[in-house]
Every structure is written in structure tokens, then in C-alpha cells.
């Protein structure tokens, strides 16, 4: 299931949205009140859905879609003025006021889009990636999301599949031990 992040300057909006999602079985990963907290959380997560609630002082949803759109789906729930600020085609918009089932329907649609975009590694490839992450975590004293990001970054930079990159990490690890 996709990690769901909620961003709003209003504590009441964050809480209300989190309760609505929880009542329908969605787990909210984090509630963010500031842009810096949101960006820090996005950098730590592999992927997910970001829900913006309320008015936006500037084009933050567009910036988030541009910076993290390859990993995150973005939904803005707000009044017409707030929605008019968002120009990115990657940002999904839902006009407020809206019924709770419209919000849940939008989140369900984004969850499905999210799951269709994720690469699914099977069997041997999955084991290679998991083992390589463990090696990186031990070698560099980093957590699992950071190990994943390093593998992903290297693979992208060199035009490789992540499983091939993981195999190189494991091969280099074995050579270092010998």
C-alpha cells in the first residue's frame, strides 16, 4: 500500500483528513505542517501519495510534483483559488467543499496509479536487491531507505536495472572480503 503524506498549514485539516482516511482503512504515514518537514519526509520515503489540504501560499504542489513526481502522486484538495495556482498536469485536483467519498475515491484512484507504476521484482532479483541493501547498510551505517536510494541512484546514473546494480554491489563485497 502506498505511503500517504498529508500536508496542510491547518492542524484541523490535517487531523480531519487523517481521520477520514483511517476510517476507510488507509494508513497515514505522516502529517506535515511545514514545507521543510514535507520535503524531508519525501526525501526519506521511496514513494507514495501526497495530499495537500487547504490554501497554498505558492505553487508548492507543482514544485513537489516536479521534484518528486517520479515517485509520488500529488492530490490538492482546496477551494478554486488554491487549485488555480496549480498548473502542473501531474497534480490531481479536487474542489472543496467535497464529500468524504470523493476524497476517498481520489485516494483510491491514486493508490491504483501508484501501484501500477511500481516495478515488481520477483524471486532472484528481489533477493539480490535486498541483500545488496543489507551490505550497504552495514558498510555505510545507513538505514534501509538510504541504501535503496543509493542503489537506485547508481542504477539510474549508469542505465542499469537495480538487480544488476545489486549484483555488482554483492560482487564487490565478496571481492573486498577475500
Protein architecture, described:
- By secondary structure, the protein is an alpha/beta fold.
- It has 2 domains: 4-117, 3-Layer(aba) Sandwich (Rossmann fold); 123-177, Arc Repressor Mutant, subunit A.
- It contains 8 helices and 5 strands.
- It has a 5-stranded parallel beta sheet, with helices on both faces.
- β3, α3 (60-68) and β4 (72-78) form a beta-alpha-beta unit.
- α6 (123-140) packs across α8 (162-177) and α7 (144-157) crosses α8.
- The mean pLDDT is 87.
Q: Please give the order of strands in the largest beta sheet.
A: 2-1-3-4-5
By CATH, the topology of the largest domain is Rossmann fold
Computed over alpha carbons, the radius of gyration is 19 Å
- Helix and strand pattern: EHEHEHEHEHHHH
Report the top-level CATH class of the largest domain.
Answer: Alpha Beta
Topology readout:
Blueprint: E1 4-7, H1 11-23, E2 28-32, H2 35-44, E3 48-53, H3 60-68, E4 72-78, H4 80-85, E5 91-95, H5 100-117, H6 123-140, H7 144-157, H8 162-177
Parallel strand pairs: 1-2, 1-3, 3-4, 4-5
